[in-house]
Structures are given as C-alpha cells and as structure tokens.
Amino acid sequence: MSDSFSHIDKKNQPKMVNVSEKSISKRNATAFARMFLGKEIISHFRMDELKTKKGPVFQTAIIAGIQAVKKTWDVIPMCHPLPINGVDISIEIADEDHIEILCSVFTEGKTGIEMEALHGASVSALTVYDMCKALSQKMVIKEIKLLNKTGGKSDYHLKAKEK
Amino acid sequence: MSDSFSHIDKKNQPKMVNVSEKSISKRNATAFARMFLGKEIISHFRMDELKTKKGPVFQTAIIAGIQAVKKTWDVIPMCHPLPINGVDISIEIADEDHIEILCSVFTEGKTGIEMEALHGASVSALTVYDMCKALSQKMVIKEIKLLNKTGGKSDYHLKAKEK
Amino acid sequence: MSDSFSHIDKKNQPKMVNVSEKSISKRNATAFARMFLGKEIISHFRMDELKTKKGPVFQTAIIAGIQAVKKTWDVIPMCHPLPINGVDISIEIADEDHIEILCSVFTEGKTGIEMEALHGASVSALTVYDMCKALSQKMVIKEIKLLNKTGGKSDYHLKAKEK
Amino acid sequence: MSDSFSHIDKKNQPKMVNVSEKSISKRNATAFARMFLGKEIISHFRMDELKTKKGPVFQTAIIAGIQAVKKTWDVIPMCHPLPINGVDISIEIADEDHIEILCSVFTEGKTGIEMEALHGASVSALTVYDMCKALSQKMVIKEIKLLNKTGGKSDYHLKAKEK
Amino acid sequence: MSDSFSHIDKKNQPKMVNVSEKSISKRNATAFARMFLGKEIISHFRMDELKTKKGPVFQTAIIAGIQAVKKTWDVIPMCHPLPINGVDISIEIADEDHIEILCSVFTEGKTGIEMEALHGASVSALTVYDMCKALSQKMVIKEIKLLNKTGGKSDYHLKAKEK
Amino acid sequence: MSDSFSHIDKKNQPKMVNVSEKSISKRNATAFARMFLGKEIISHFRMDELKTKKGPVFQTAIIAGIQAVKKTWDVIPMCHPLPINGVDISIEIADEDHIEILCSVFTEGKTGIEMEALHGASVSALTVYDMCKALSQKMVIKEIKLLNKTGGKSDYHLKAKEK
C-alpha cells in the first residue's frame, strides 16, 4: 500500500493517474455484499412452489450486476476502462432474513479490478431491492467489501477474523 | 405496501410494470450510507492543512453520486426513467473511523424515486473507496438504506429506533 | 401517413423534427419478431427437466429488451427521448424450429413509440442468439415488424392477411 | 460448436463466461440484413434528382450502425467488451421493394465478434425504418443472419444454398 | 441574472439545484461555433464534383451533434435531464478558411436548454475535426458561444455588435 | 499527413477505417482551450476568501473532462475505442478575463488519441460555462486546438508562432 491518494495531484486536483508504465497481468477480484430483506420477503423465495419468485428476482439482479461491472469506468470518475474477461455473480439465501452476494471479476490489464467487483455486487443488491420494494422498504444493505484481489503488485486477502 | 413483486408477471417473467394510469406528483426520497474508512484515511481528511485531501475526495464522490442518480434507469433494469428535478448529496466525517452520506433526490413523476436516492448514495461511497484505496483496502460500506420518501401513495419514514 | 421523410430538411440534411406543437397523448405500440433457432436448440428448451435452459435464456433476453427500449433514443439517431411508462415482452416457442417475441411499450408523449417497440423486440432476439450461439450459428431472425400502434394522429394495425 | 450454452452456469444462472485463458487473434465477422420497404419508399431513393433522399437516409443508418457496433457490450448483457478495429457497412437497393445491408466488423480479441456485426446490421435497418416511417409503416425486416466469421477456434461460412 | 453560482451550495460543494418549484415553459436556445479548417480542406468541399466530400463530413457532424444534444445531461455533471422536442443543426462554409455551425434546440421544461445547444455545436465541430484530421491537424475551433435563448425567466440575445 | 479523408470510403459513405494492420504504440496528445469568462466571474475566483468558488467549479470541470475523455468513442461517431492509460487536466486563470485549460491523454493503441484530448478540453470548458451561467451568459470559448501529439506515424507539435 502507498501512503498517498492515487487520483489527486500535487495541487489537490483530481486526476486519472497514468498507468502507462505498468505492465499487463492477469488479475481478478471478488467482492461481497450482505443484505437484510426480512422474513416476509425471504419466505417468498423459499415457498415450495414449482416456480418461486426467487428465479426472476435473482436472475435480474445477476444480469444487472454483470452489466454494471462493464460500466464501472463510466460510473466511478477516476476508474480506468479495463477489458473484462469474465464475471461470475452468485446470490444465496444466507438465513431467514438475509441474502449474500459474491461478485468475481477477471481481467488482464495494468491496474486492479476491485472497483468493478464492488460495483457489480452493489448493483446486484440494489436490483434485489428494486424487485422486492413493493413488499417492504425496510431492506438494508448491511455490508459491501472486498474479499480478495490477485495479480497486482500486492495481493489482498481479507483475513478470516475480519470476514 | 402490496403483497406482491412489482416487476414480475403471472408467468414469473420480469416486466417493467405499466404506470400509465398513475398520476404525476411531486416526490422526494433520501438514502443514507455509512462507510468504515479507518483512522489512517480519516486522519488525512482532518489534518490541519490549508487544503486537505478531503476536498477533492468528497467533491469527486458527490459529483459521481449526482451523475449516478441520473443514470439509475440505465443501471437498475426495471426502473422507470424519471425526470430529476434536483439532487443534494452531503458527506460528513461521523467519527474517527467512519463517514456518512446523505443523498436526497427530487422528482415529479408517476412512480417513486427511492432507487435513485439509494443508487446515488452507493456510488458516492464507492467513489470514496476508489479515491482512497491506495492507502488501504480495508474500507467497508456498513449500511445503505432508505431514510424516507414522500409524495407517493404512501409515505415512508424510517422510525427513530431503526435509524 | 405523410408523403415525406420526417427527419430530413429542405437541404437534404438530417434533422430531429420539432414536435413542440404536438399535444401529449397516451400511446402504445407492439412489435413482433420471429426467429429460427432450429430443432437442436429448441429441444434444449423443451426437455423435461426440472429446470430447463429456457429460463435463463428467455429471462436474459426479456431484460435486455426492456433495457433496450429505454435506450432507443441513444441508438436511433433521430428518435426523440420519450418517457417509458411500461414494457412487456413475451417470448414463446412457436414450433419445433422457431420462437416468437412480442414487445409492447407504453408512453405518454408527443410522438409515437413504435421505434422503441421494434428496438426492444430486435435486442431480445439478438440476446437469444448470443445465449445459444455456442450450439449453432445457423439461427436467423426471420421477421421484425410493427403489429400495431395507438394514441397518435392515426392508429395503425397490421391487417390480418398481412400478419 | 459446443453442445452447451456458453453464458449459463451449472445452477442455470446467467454468467459472463471467463475467456482469460483464450488467446488473442485477429477476427472478423459479417452480418446481413434484408428489409422490405415497398415500392413507394424505394421510388423516393431512385428518383432522378440531383440529390435524392437516399443520401441522408442511408448515411444516417450507416452511422447509427457503426455506433451500435461499438455499444454491443452495453446492449447484449453477456457480451464481452472487445476492441473494434474497423466497421464497414453498406446499404444497397436490392430490387424495387427491398434493401440489403452488409455489416463487417474487425477486432483482435479473445472471443468472436459476430454479435457486433449482427447488432450493427439490425440498428442500421431500424434507422432506415425510423427515417422512412412517415411514408409507410408496412416496412418489415425480413432477415438478419450471420454470413461468415473468421479468426476463432472454428471459422463459419454460410453455405451458398443457405444464402 | 443572479449574482451567485447555481450549482454550489453554502458549504461550497457541488449540487444539482432543485427546480421543482419552477414552472414548465416552451424554451429554445441557439449556439454558434466557428472553426478554422484552412484552404486545403475547404477546397475539398468546394470542388465541382458530382459528389463532394462535403456530404458525408457535414452529415456525420450533424448527426453527432444531434445525438450529443440528447446526451448533455450525461456529459455535463450538473445539467438536468430535459425533454428534447427538436434539434436543428446547420453547417455552412463561411469563407475559404472557415465553417460556421448553428445548433438550435427546443424543449418544454423547467430550466434552460443553452447547455444542450452549446454541447451540440461543439460536438459537431469536433466531428468535422475527426473526419478531416488526416489532411491537416491545424484546424482550430475559434469560437463557441450562445446566440440566444427564449422561454425562461429572462430571454437572452447576443447584441449585434457582439456577434 | 495523407491527402484524403480517413473515414469516407470510395462511394462517399462514412466508414470506421480498419486499423487492424497498424501496430500498437504508446501515444499521448495534449489539447488546449481558452475561454472568456469576464471580469465579474473571474473576480469570484480570485476573492481572498478561505474557500473561493474556484474549487468546486474547476474540480467539477476537471472531473467532467476526464469522464468525457473516456466517452469520446461514444460521442464522435468514427472514433475507435482506445484504452485510456491516464488523463491530466489543468485549469488556470490566464488573466482578469480568461481561463485556459490543458488536457493531456495517454494511451497505448493503434491510432491517435487527439480526439480524446480535444473532447476532454471542450467538455471541461462547457462545464465551467454551466457552473457560472447564472452570473453571465456572455462567456465565449475562444479557442480549442491540438498542442501536440506523439507516438504515431508522425508527431505533431504546434509551432511557437502558431501558439
């Protein structure tokens, strides 16, 4: 880790840091989101029907997250555009109140892809919110964080006790 | 609140619900985000320099959040495009480890604007992450939620004890 | 119907025609697409498994079509941006070789919404193609056309014999 | 050709397949569209005037198609963003009722570019529709298909009898 | 004219000012751009050929400008999204060295549309640059300014001597 | 310099020229904009307050310019999408009436990046206009031009006397 802000120049103005001299490497990053939906909404996802509502809600959220990954450079002002080699998002029911989202992103570029993973996880969570908000608006995103990234100058793995 | 999912039809397929028959009203919504940055990063924002790093970091995050509000319909698949009359985002240092973000959005339309407020707050938080990530990647978004919305069929206000 | 091109001025230059003097009315339009997939791909959608591949393929295509409807003004150069009140897309297996797509769009504006319906149907078809192309690339979109539109100066309904 | 769907994982959820291990190669693809305009509209393009309407209509459609090629990753949810090295679109009057569109796209990447070619051809056709719709709405896109692609694991060429 | 900055709040942070209380009116604005191309490029536009290069260069620039008008809210951070009722862009050869561009935009909204007109004129000029840059890179945009706007609290017309 | 237009084919139709055979090189380009604001607006930026309005106005303009650089391929129809390795924008008060903007862009690609630099400079200028227009609408962009580019087939440097 550096001891300075990457996207601010000496005059305290924002800039998009020049990564021309960095070399290209295969990189990936995984972000995690945890979201409170409440028992009522979760029960709609567990009901023993042939087709529950879980299908369209989670699939819409996964698709939205994948598309958000590709648009990260357009949403976060200082993010470099990066080639996106793959995106894998899963959404699981964690307990009777919560879902958990994992978003893994793969690239081959000059700078890390953690913002893409975090952006994908957060948009998937917001899309679940949008699909369920007619039932309740007490939903809360409880956590969005980086689990790990590899392939850059230094890898990062959240320690077990921090998870 | 209804007892069903708004964007799913009878065959369990996603659809963008038809709001043609709803009337137009002035509406607003406010979302809240709380984010752990850690003492090291927060200290950079508090240092008694003429110009601290807080300026460019928070301003970039506010601008990114305002732009994200306007793009919510493009990011959340079932969101209706809505006229955006105004956006007001503030970011405050809450304590020596955390910042808090408020995002208020104003519209005049046929459906609520809560997704826009939540999206603006989450993108502001992610932008702070991006601007600070060279210092530490242990930052965590700890909470994103709706504080209140007014102007629709039913208003919503988070109760004090839930805040 | 007029006897002239709407988006070309007297000097033969493209222009976005000024609709300021037109009044706002509720409008809708429905477009239709028919696509050859072939027996092999269709058989994957009919197999008597608990979960067939039809679910994720058709849902991804429906979501892509809904989002495309909202972006029509950005893709078709002379299209006016219009408020989108609702979008309803269905995809059916028509026979052992073909699927059929219906895309209905609802607005309240000064100009017709047929381009949005046609754009949504075509992007849904292309998304099915993308999801199935590892199986075969002999897929062909056989037809994209307007079925009907209402709410403008003159309604339009495809006659039965033309369907 | 594979015997499976590329963008669906084992749990039947959509995913953007990881192409990290594939090698980069020069690739191109050409798509074809055929569209019924009818004698009246076609006659406007053939009239022996110094400047016919054909110019602005076809040029607007070509420009729209080129821009659509570049946006394919944003419109088709599972498409990888690819560098676009070149786009060549031509529109010809095929007979007194029809036009034909060819869209060729060139890239250098890890995955094929056929969706870009198909998307470009379809948006060019829709733009012609938009420019001519004040004259008639009986226009029909009669065919959109892939003519050939080269540079990937296996080339594809539509056989003559299928053309 | 006010004596303050519209998009900055009391704490000197950017905000998108709330126009909810303003009433909707028909508005238009016209912007002007003047660009030096030089004798060589201009001569290509004047040559007495049946089809000169002027056609595709100016038409591409007009189409790009029209599309830019529609995207102004996405490019200028504090701009409100506005309905666009019409756009009219003309490009003329002013003398043997220069072209002049006029961009007129029509809306019906709560706030002025001058940024849309200025944005359309500037993107048309940049597109001419892009189309001609293989011939010379000495082109210079010499002026972009607002000519007039009507329909708001106060009209604005550039005085003759200032033109 | 060539003696022809790069994006026009033999039939005078626009095309996006195929750069497949060109080799990749490190490239950069710098554009310059000069803008008349007038004494009143400039005085707001010079006032001896702890925090002047200059901060949020210039920072918003810099951020808008950086984001515009990344979107050049979407705004200028024939521009190839290019990887953006870095963007550096500075805005200075030139005299009591004017500001000057420099926009430098870095890439590693098959074609030049001058349009990105020119686009970034022009959007920064337009954003300053938007932030100040409540004070006066007599602002004028007086000049946008390329200062230099390196890394392509031939470098370009504006000669001193032309500056």
Helix tally of chain A?
A: 4
The CATH architecture of chain A comes to 2-Layer Sandwich
Query: In percent, how much strand structure appears in the residues of chain A?
Result: 25-35%
The most extensive interface between chains reads: A-B, 59 and 59 residues
CATH topology annotation of chain A: Alpha-Beta Plaits
For the secondary structure, the number of strands of chain A is 5
Name the assembly state. Answer: homohexamer
State the fourth-level CATH superfamily of chain A: Molybdopterin cofactor biosynthesis C (MoaC) domain
Q: What level of helicity do the residues of chain A show?
A: 25-40%
H/E series of chain A? EHHHEEHEE
Overall average residue pLDDT of chain A? 90
Can you give a write-up of this model?
Six copies of one chain form a homohexamer. Chain A has a single domain (25-151), classed as Molybdopterin cofactor biosynthesis C (MoaC) domain (Alpha-Beta Plaits). Chain A contains four helices and five strands. Chain A is α+β, with helices and mostly antiparallel strands. In chain A, 29% of the residues lie in helices and 28% in strands. In chain A, strand 4 (140-150) and strand 5 form a beta hairpin. At the A-B interface, helix 2, helix 4 and strand 4 of A face helix 2, helix 4 and strand 4 of B. Chains A, B, C, D, E, F: It catalyses: (8S)-3',8-cyclo-7,8-dihydroguanosine 5'-triphosphate = cyclic pyranopterin phosphate + diphosphate. Chains A, B, C, D, E, F: One of its GO terms (molecular function) is cyclic pyranopterin monophosphate synthase activity. Chains A, B, C, D, E, F: Catalyzes the conversion of (8S)-3',8-cyclo-7,8-dihydroguanosine 5'-triphosphate to cyclic pyranopterin monophosphate (cPMP). Chains A, B, C, D, E, F: Residues 16-152 form the Molybdopterin cofactor biosynthesis C (MoaC) domain.
